[in-house]
Amino acid sequence: AAGVIQSPRHLIKEKRETATLKCYPIPRHDTVYWYQQGPGQDPQFLISFYEKMQSDKGSIPDRFSAQQFSDYHSELNMSSLELGDSALYFCASSLEDSATGELFFGEGSRLTVL
Amino acid sequence: RKEVEQDPGPFNVPEGATVAFNCTYSNSASQSFFWYRQDCRKEPKLLMSVYSSGNEDGRFTAQLNRASQYISLLIRDSKLSDSATYLCVVNGGNYGQNFVFGPGTRLSVLP
What we know:
The structure holds 2 protein chains of 2 kinds. By secondary structure, chain A is mainly β. Chain A contains no helices and 11 strands. Chain A has strands spanning 5-7, 10-13, 19-24, 31-37, 44-50, 53-57, 64-68, 74-78, 87-94, 104-105, 109-113. In chain A, strands 2, 4, 5, 6, 9, 10 and 11 form a 7-stranded mixed beta sheet that branches. A 4-stranded antiparallel beta sheet of chain A has the order 1-3-8-7, with no helix packed on it. In chain A, β7 (64-68) and β8 (74-78) form a beta hairpin. The model of chain A has no long low-confidence stretch (mean pLDDT 91). Chain B is mainly β. Helices cover 0% and strands 53% of the residues of chain B. Chain B has strands at residues 4-6, 11-14, 19-25, 32-38, 45-50, 55-57, 60-65, 70-75, 84-91, 99-101, 105-110. Chain B is globular and about 40 Å long. Chain B starts with a strand and ends with a strand. The mean pLDDT of chain B is 90.
């Protein structure tokens, strides 16, 4: 079965550069979430989209923005990168009306800022 | 205070031991509860949903106490392969869903 696809899997950037992460949710899933997980930390919610509209916002820095496109894929744009942005970025998708409400995660994109 | 809190861990137990993890949540409007398992440098994966009546899946038993806003996970006859971080996840029930993760409890099962 198709899973959540994230790209790139690994990304190395310099400070003050920009980065874009992509997420392709499971087909027919209408909700996408972005999480940031630093070393030894639990996943921190950044932002979510439901039916291409932002539905909730967490601890996302102003330097970051995200959107969900008509094909339901989502992109997380990060600008003016800082060393502290180095983390594993997970995208997850779910079906709003799912009886289980389960979140399905992608394998993550590991960002290293030098 | 964090919205979802868990036992600090780590838990180091011998194979075959029974181990229990606890989790508390602060949002009384929370509607769905889950235990996720995360292996090192991997994505979290659903271990089990937690239902009001309690539920069991093989060696794993989850309990929910809404009045106390408390969730537990019991692992019996632990295996080496159970070594991982266990994340308590609460769906806050807001529009569009809002899954909140606890800090995780790390389990190491020792031979």
